[in-house]
Design a protein that fits this description.
The chain has helices at residues 11-15, 34-37, 40-45, 47-63, 68-75, 92-96, 155-163, 217-232, and strands at 4-9, 28-29, 32-33, 81-86, 101-103, 106-113, 123-124, 141-145, 167-171, 192-197, 210-214. It is an alpha/beta fold. The strands form three sheets. The chain has a six-stranded parallel beta sheet with strand order 5-4-1-9-10-11, with helices on both faces. Strands 7-6-8 form a three-stranded antiparallel beta sheet, with helices on one face. The protein has a two-stranded antiparallel sheet with strand order 2-3. Strand 4, helix 6 (92-96) and strand 5 form a beta-alpha-beta unit.
Amino acid sequence: MKKRLVVLTGAGISAESGLKTFRDSDGLWEGYDVYAVASPDGWRKDPALVLDFYNVRRKDVGSAQPNAAHIGLAKLEEHFEVRIITQNIDDLHERAGSTNVMHLHGEIFKMRSVHDEDEQNIMDIKGDISIGDVGPDGGQLRPHIVWFGEEVSMIAPAQREVRMADIFVVVGTSLNVYPAAGLLNYAPVHAHKFIIDKKIPPVDGYYNNLHQIESPATTGVEELTRVLLEKYLAD
């Protein structure tokens, strides 16, 4: 039986595909105050600005390509039962070939009415969303993104996934954004744990079965693959 490998990914894995994050520039995201474009208050104040911001992000993601880290995690499905939990709103894991991806913070290529969060009514979007574009219920369409201050509805399913992990891996996240950062607390004591980042975040209290790989995601996933195959395919 394949071991269950659960991977939490953050902005660091997509940064190597050219997608920037606001944390790289003191709270500014492509020159915007992040709370002006990624919060309910920002939406109320200037929805057109928010839509324009995400329309550009959608184009950026569409132009980006999966990198070796995305592809490496997808290839691990050959040997492990892989579950990806990502904080990223891009689709690079899916395009790299990962078949089980959970998006904690929404998806840039999906939209919904401001009045309706029902999963059945979430729609695909590849182009732009404009003021005046409405859903079936007449509500203005908005990106299907979890903004600061909004509930992370996928956190409970993510916690369940982590609880069942034989191996738990964190790639490219500062472990500063909650509740996602708290997922490390749900990994079983016996699980083999890995943290991959070019600057390892504080992990006090997690030294049991913890393997630190201080490296960018692309080379870090390559090392992860080598370690996992040596350990688990030999067992």
